[in-house]
Amino acid sequence: MRNLIFLSFLICLTGCVKSNSDLIQIIEGNPASQLALWKKKGISNYEMTMKISCYCIQGRVGPHLIVVENDKIKTVNNLPYDSTKTGPILTINELFDFIIISLAKNPYQHSLDYNTIFYYPKNIYFDFSKQIADEEIGYEITYFKAL
């Protein structure tokens, strides 16, 4: 029901804005809207470079060159994906899941920035607790190419 109300709002809103870029600015930051725009692009094969900001081992941080085929990670840094070597790496769809789950936890601080052409999350940061050190996590996509 909530999605139907939101969709109705967007349809009404599109009649009130001057251009598509105005609409993007209005909904920027809303993960559900950005996810819908990303999915509308229909991209399931892509490569990207991702940096991970966390209190973790250096090999986890990257940057990692990631190739995704059919929404599954195929290679990381030109090697077959092996999460035991790199730690878990997230696809763009999984990044959206991470954002939605993390927002539901009421983080102390967060920031989200999306690419305005393909709508994927290009910069994500979450600090879940003011009282806990080193539980913050961030993801930054510095390069993206649809294949």
Tag the structure with descriptive keywords:
147 residues; alpha+beta; 6 helices; 31% strand; globular; disordered N terminus
Count of runs of 4 or more consecutive helical residues: 6
Tell me the strand percentage band: 25-35%
**What is the structural class?**
alpha+beta
Number of domains: 1
Shape label: globular
What's the total number of strands? 7
Strand order of the largest sheet: 4-3-2-1-7-6-5
Helix % is 25-40%
Q: How are helices and strands ordered from N to C? A: HHHEHEEEHHEEE
Plain-language structure description:
- The chain has 147 residues and is an alpha+beta fold.
- The chain has one domain.
- Helices cover 36% and strands 31% of the residues.
- It has helices spanning 2-14, 20-27, 31-41, 58-61, 83-86, 92-104, and strands at residues 46-54, 64-69, 72-76, 79-80, 109-114, 121-127, 137-146.
- It has a 7-stranded antiparallel beta sheet, covered by helices on one side.
- Strand 2 and strand 3 (72-76) form a beta hairpin.
- The longest helix is centred in the first third of the chain and has 13 residues, at 2-14.
Question: Gist?
Answer:
The chain is built from six helices and seven strands.
Question: Which helices and strands, and how do they pair?
Answer:
Blueprint: H1 2-14, H2 20-27, H3 31-41, E1 46-54, H4 58-61, E2 64-69, E3 72-76, E4 79-80, H5 83-86, H6 92-104, E5 109-114, E6 121-127, E7 137-146
Antiparallel strand pairs: 1-2, 1-7, 2-3, 3-4, 5-6, 6-7
